[in-house]
Specification:
The complex is a heterodimer. By secondary structure, chain A is an alpha+beta fold. Chain A has helices spanning 4-11, 35-43, 84-97, 108-112, 151-159, 200-223, 257-264, 316-329, 339-346; strands spanning 19-26, 48-50, 56-61, 64-69, 75-80, 101-103, 119-128, 141-147, 170-178, 183-189, 193-198, 227-230, 239-242, 246-249, 273-274, 278-280, 283-290, 295-302, 305-310, 335-336. Chain A has three domains: 4-103; 108-221, no CATH class; 226-346, no CATH class. In chain A, helix 6 (200-223) packs across helix 8 (316-329) and helix 6 (200-223) packs antiparallel against helix 9 (339-346). Classes of the chains: A alpha+beta, B alpha+beta. The interface between A and B is large, with 49 and 47 residues.
Chain lengths: 353, 322
């Protein structure tokens, strides 16, 4: 008999032996792939087994053991004691070639406001603007590694500088949590990777909360998708629609629209958007295809704004991927126009933090 | 299309201000057909409701220069209660139901529209739209509720109206090519091997199912022309097969997909599919693939014979817009 408690026992962590968690999105909007089908895609059909917990699977990769917790629905937590270098290449290969799978794409803001009351002792920002900004831009490529209690304050100081304010984008953060629930030292990378020492049960709650607020952002994006509905179910009686474009406002102007569009729609990682941009009066119109999930995404781009038309049933994780990567390549301070989306993106820090 | 500007004014949280939404209006129906008391029927493009005031606005959106007199007259005879029924509108209070007609047109065509409305003494207000402004003209004919939505008579748009409806059956073939190309890329990304024309039309054309048969055929013909063009551009990737005897059927086969390659080869293959379309731009298609005759036959009943169809223009000039 193998239970959730066994998983916790096996994955218990201490300073000398951190535990890793990678959260992936396992989601087939068409509903044609079952969770076990997706498990077979990742691990091979003979390399995973059921446990007595309906949501927990145990799998084997390159002589290592991983535990897959599916309690969070489409967001699966893959826990292991293996080093990241052992598990990541396997996942990378599967995720990049299967549209049922995707990474978590945590926005910079989610890392910046990682945990109420937690002190960040390491912060890494990474901005790679060379495809979107001219060489003359003072922050075309900007990476900062800071350690120590004053790391975030120093970052805040840098962020006030006009030349850098749009280029401070959180890539990974390490926090220490010490409270009545337990103690954790937790490192989080923007692509849903966690490394932890401390109380493993607390870590599971930590991951759940990070994933939960990310899920809110993803689902709000999906609720914005454009849906046409016949009145009274009959197409002869006219129709109504719900949703609309997801509007994004940039804090900086796009300096070169052609370069921006060419970079964004080059079918390359990380955006994986295919499209043929059409230019009209300083606005770019693109019928793009998100190659990762195989869905069409119409986009309109102006000098300081962008609209994304997510098709009905479209995957909100694709919007999160777009947002997170634009934050790391063009504008870390971009905002949604919709206040509820913006709130889910920005995660305003609770009072007292 | 003017309808997009109207929808945008009712859609909050966009780059542009949703002034009609802020004034309490929301869209309760599109393409609502109602019977007129004097006989005949009229299809209202967009119906707006101001719930607090129990006020309906029947909107007719015009892309061209001219109004249709009979249609315009029928708009004036619409019984708002019929619209409530036809669009299954829920009224939340018992205030007397009121209504008005609003024409919506492109700003640079507004004078002709006004002439047309004056010509039949139709005292409707007019919303004129451009990429940078929406203005309420003939405001004296508008209700106070509608006028209040446009203080100063107009509203500036920071961005062109969102393309919520990005094409319809009247769009030129070049637009159909632009729409079907990413559709096929999407199919390739999903490793789909063939797609039928009706399926493409249903997936891409919002109104397809509710169009009358003749219009559906017109749409299908344009997709067929677009698919032939794409097959001619890239015969190694796409092959269009027409069903014998014509008709809206027909299948496009995806002969290869970039998904067959490893991740690096895949990216290059997708990029090359974008380059093919650019490289072929302006180059005439294989005349054996281009079936203009079928288009002429299929569209002759629907199009104004005084104006050349888009298909004819394309064939004469050998242009392929993408």
């Amino acid at each position: 008999m193998t239970t959730r408690a066994d998983m916790i026992d096996r994955l218990g962590c201490d300073v000398s032996s951190p535990t890793r968690t990678i959260v992936v999105e396992a989601h087939d909007p068409s509903g044609s792939s079952s969770p076990d089908d997706i498990m077979a895609i990742i691990f091979g059909s003979s390399n995973f087994m059921e446990t007595d917990d309906a949501y927990v699977k145990r799998a084997f990769v390159n002589d290592g053991e991983v535990w897959v917790d599916q309690l969070q629905g489409r967001f699966w937590s893959i826990h292991t004691k293996m080093p990241m270098g052992g598990i990541l290449p396997v996942l990378k290969e599967k995720i990049e070639s299967h549209r049922e799978l995707d990474w978590l794409w945590l926005p910079s803001n989610h890392l910046q406001n990682l945990w109420p009351g937690a002190s960040s002792n390491r912060v890494k920002t990474k901005f790679q603007g060379h495809d979107f900004l001219p060489a003359s831009d003072p922050a075309q490529d900007l990476s900062i590694n800071l350690a120590g209690g004053g790391a975030e304050r120093l970052l805040a100081y840098i962020s006030q500088e006009d030349n850098y304010r749009s280029a401070v984008s959180f890539d990974s953060v390490q926090v220490s949590v010490r409270d009545s629930i337990g103690r954790l030292d937790e490192a989080v990378h923007r692509m849903g990777r966690f490394a932890v020492t401390g109380d493993f049960e607390y870590h599971l709650q930590f991951v759940n909360i990070i994933v939960g607020r990310y899920r809110k952002l993803v689902e709000l994006c999906e609720q914005s998708s454009l849906a046409w509905k016949p009145i009274d179910g009959s197409s002869d009686d006219g129709f109504t629609f719900s949703g609309g474009p997801i509007a994004i406002r940039f804090s900086r102007e796009i300096p070169d629209m052609e370069q921006f569009a060419a970079s964004l729609f080059a079918a390359r990682q990380p955006f994986r958007l295919w499209g043929i941009p059409q230019f009209k009066d300083d606005v770019v119109y693109v019928d793009a295809v998100d190659l990762h999930v195989g869905q069409q995404v119409r986009m309109e781009i102006g000098r300081q704004w962008m609209r994304v038309h997510l098709e009905s049933g479209g995957c909100g994780n694709a919007i999160a991927r777009l947002i997170s990567n634009l934050q790391h390549r063009f504008d870390s301070r971009l905002e949604f126009v919709d206040p509820s989306l913006q709130s889910a993106l920005a995660l305003p820090a609770p009072a007292g933090v | 299309m003017p309808v997009n500007a109207l929808l945008g004014l009712c859609t909050p949280n966009d780059i542009n201000p949703a002034v009609l939404s802020h004034a309490g209006f929301r869209i309760v129906g599109l393409e609502i057909t109602v019977a007129c008391s004097v006989g005949g029927r009229v299809t209202i493009d967009v119906v707006l409701l101001n719930e607090a005031e129990s006020h309906l606005v029947f909107c007719e959106c015009k892309s061209g220069n001219n109004i249709e007199n009979e249609q315009a007259e029928r708009y004036g005879m619409i019984d708002p209660k019929s619209v409530v029924t036809a669009a299954a509108i829920t009224l939340s209070n018992r205030k007397p139901l009121t209504s008005e007609v609003l024409y919506v047109c492109l700003a640079d065509k507004s004078e002709r529209i006004i002439q047309g409305l004056d010509g039949i003494s139709a005292d409707y207000a007019l919303l004129t739209v451009s990429d940078s402004e929406v203005a309420l003209r003939r405001a004296e004919n508008a209700s106070e509720i509608l006028r209040d939505a446009f203080p100063g008579g107009s509203v500036k748009l920071p961005a062109p109206p969102a393309r919520i409806i990005d094409f319809d059956h009247d769009s030129p073939v070049s637009v159909f090519v632009d729409k079907v190309r990413p559709y096929l890329i999407r199919a390739a990304a999903r490793r789909i091997e063939e797609v039928s024309v009706p399926r493409i039309a249903e997936d891409l054309c919002v109104h397809y199912r509710r169009y009358q048969q003749a219009v559906r055929q017109q749409i299908a013909k344009r997709f067929q022309t677009a698919l032939r063009q794409l097959s001619a551009e890239d015969p190694d990737t796409y092959r269009y097969e027409q069903v014998p005897g014509g008709g809206p059927e027909g299948v496009v086969r995806l002969l290869r997909t970039p998904e067959e390659f490893d991740h690096r080869g895949r990216t290059v293959a997708y990029q090359s599919l974008a380059r093919v379309s650019r490289r072929r731009k302006g180059k005439s298609v294989d005349p054996n693939q281009l079936d203009l005759l079928a288009d002429v036959e299929g569209s002759s009943e629907m199009e104004d014979p005084s104006e050349p169809s888009d298909d004819e223009e394309e064939g004469l000039e050998g242009e392929e817009t993408s």
